Amino acid sequence: MPDYTLLARQLEALLDTRDWLTNTAQTCAFIVQEVADLNWAGFYLQRQPETLILGPFQGKPACNPIPFDKGVCGAAARSRQTQRVDDVHGIADHIACDAASRAELVVPIIVGERIWGVLDLDSPRAARFSVDDQAGIERLVEVFIDASDFDRER
Which GO terms describe its molecular function (predicted)? Predict the structure, then answer.
């Protein structure tokens, strides 16, 4: 298991700009480099009402757009709570962008009072994400939020 305390410090050092777009790209590349058994890591951004639009990512081409009422990403955006799924094939409304994906972890990104987007991680290994992974990735999302300016995004 990764040392998420160390990863948080490394990500803080890596995110040396306040630009949210640069920081999304750097964050996904860093996570793919440092967290084992991932086949996709990326951001979906809320740019339309009740809809997530694909942002920077690492992995195969992805599904776009994702409505809040569909899939694991939509559930995270809708509920504003992290979604950790051991086997996505057991989720009735799962959006299958890559049939090889089995486990998924989606962390909502809340800026102020609004949902800004989500960080989505997929793994080809069932039950890949533990409670400790969830807490660690949630901490990395906090680092990303703290390092980024969102007021000039639109």
Answer: L-methionine-(R)-S-oxide reductase activity
- What residues of the chain score a pLDDT lower than 50? 154
The CATH number given to 4-147 is 3.30.450.40
Q: What angle do CA 4, 8, 13 make, to 5 degrees?
A: 145
Would you state the pLDDT for residue 154? Answer: 45
Amino acid 124: pLDDT: 96
Annotate the chain with DSSP letters as a single string: ---HHHHHHHHHHH--S-BHHHHHHHHHHHHHHHSSS-SEEEEEEEEETTEEEEEEEEES-----EETTSHHHHHHHHHTS-EEES-GGG-TT---S-TT--EEEEEEEEETTEEEEEEEEEESSTT---HHHHHHHHHHHHHHHHH-B-TT--
| Nearest residue to 127 via CA among 85, 83, 86, 89 | 86
Sequence ranges of the domains in the chain: 4-147
pTM, full prediction: 0.95
> What is the pLDDT, as a whole number, of residue 94?
66
